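hiii so um. not sure if this is the right channel but i have a protein structure encoded as tokens and i wanna go backwards to a sequence. like what aa goes where. can anyone help
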């Protein structure tokens, strides 16, 4: 049982890889399919749209039927989606379908999968489960763009080979996860399908301690490798732009992993505030980089925003772990993830805003919102906390 979480974490890693390596291929699709600047952001947005039902439904369903019953079929859905993307790279419509389907499958793996890791980590030091789930997903989010960026830049078949590598690894991950302990249905009262566990005991704590911060979790990393390179303009990233974007993603998510000790030393709400401060600084630094047109300095922006992402993600999971009742843990975790993925809509919003506004000013505005969220955060009162996770 003590090491069983590694099997589920491996699947989370591969699922995160498949979700994010698409970002490194956006420049290839944009050039090959002659897409306008907003179209690649639409591909990110439709992925987020698929995540919503995947995350919201998988939590309560896994609370009712067990984590395993949701995670493994959803992983197969991700396999089908990744195959669609790999063999549909010539058609924008198939890319939309593949991204939507991957969003649904990813959400249905990520939410109960993270809770499965939490449940397999209950004998470890407090907060270990949240850190393990974050590290697994973040490693995949960062490794995927790096390996796919290298393959797309220098290997043949740039819109197919990255998916073939991912598909082969995903088969292995599904087989490994199938042997993980636990994850089965547990006895308990039967609850409504969309019961996410928000009630009078934790509503205020969730609102003040989680909701203000959650949308910035994925806003911070995605603007590094999907927004800022576009703001710098064509040719700004030099002769190997695809590999450079992959490197940016790896540095961003790698910093999020390395920042995890911060979440162990502080109360989760204090940690979340620290993460938002880093995000604010990263957005301001990014605005300077865009104004001064210094693309090499993106390698300094990436780790700052990466720390903001990693600290906020784990802090939010820890607060959810504290606030949720065991029988609705999956539901509340799903709601938290839905709120975090609002960040995937930010690149599209910024792309629209930059049609009329200076790009750097939109990043300054984002920094202001992040600072306001840090100020608005409040530590859940003891009365609003469940006994689990304390």
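sure thing!! here u go:
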């Amino acid at each position: 049982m003590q090491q069983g979480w590694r099997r589920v974490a491996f699947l989370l890693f591969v699922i995160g890889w498949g979700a994010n390596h698409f970002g490194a291929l956006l420049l290839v699709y944009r050039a090959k399919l002659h897409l306008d600047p907003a179209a690649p952001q639409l591909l990110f947005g439709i992925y987020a749209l698929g995540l919503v039902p995947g995350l919201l439904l998988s939590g309560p369903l896994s609370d009712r039927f067990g984590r395993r019953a949701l995670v493994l079929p959803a992983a197969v859905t991700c396999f089908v989606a990744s195959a669609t993307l790999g063999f549909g790279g010539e058609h924008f419509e198939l890319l939309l379908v593949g991204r939507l389907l991957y969003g649904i499958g990813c959400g249905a793996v990520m939410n109960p999968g993270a809770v499965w890791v939490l449940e397999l980590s209950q004998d470890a030091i407090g907060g270990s489960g949240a850190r393990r789930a974050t590290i697994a997903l973040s490693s995949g989010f960062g490794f995927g763009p790096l390996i796919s960026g290298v393959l797309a830049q220098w290997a043949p078949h740039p819109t197919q080979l990255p998916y073939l590598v991912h598909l082969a690894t995903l088969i292995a991950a599904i087989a490994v996860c199938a042997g993980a302990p636990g994850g089965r249905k547990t006895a308990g009262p039967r609850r409504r399908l969309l019961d996410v566990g928000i009630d009078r005991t934790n509503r205020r704590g969730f609102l003040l301690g989680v909701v203000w911060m959650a949308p910035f979790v994925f806003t911070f990393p995605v603007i590094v490798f999907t927004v800022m390179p576009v703001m710098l303009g064509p040719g700004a990233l030099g002769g190997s732009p695809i590999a450079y974007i992959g490197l940016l993603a790896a540095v961003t998510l790698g910093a999020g992993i390395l920042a995890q000790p911060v979440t162990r030393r502080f109360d989760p709400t204090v940690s979340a505030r620290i993460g938002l401060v880093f995000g604010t600084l990263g957005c301001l630094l990014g605005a300077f980089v865009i104004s001064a047109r210094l693309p090499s300095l993106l390698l300094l922006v990436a780790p700052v925003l990466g720390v903001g992402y990693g600290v906020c993600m784990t802090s939010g999971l820890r607060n959810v772990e504290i606030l949720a009742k065991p029988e609705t843990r999956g539901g509340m975790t799903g709601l938290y993830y839905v709120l975090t993925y609002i960040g995937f809509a930010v690149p599209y919003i910024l792309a629209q805003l930059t049609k009329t506004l200076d790009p750097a000013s939109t990043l300054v505005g984002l920094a202001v919102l992040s600072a306001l969220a840090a100020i608005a955060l409040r530590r859940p009162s003891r009365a609003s906390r469940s006994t689990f996770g304390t």
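oh and Residues 38-65 form the longest helix (28 residues).
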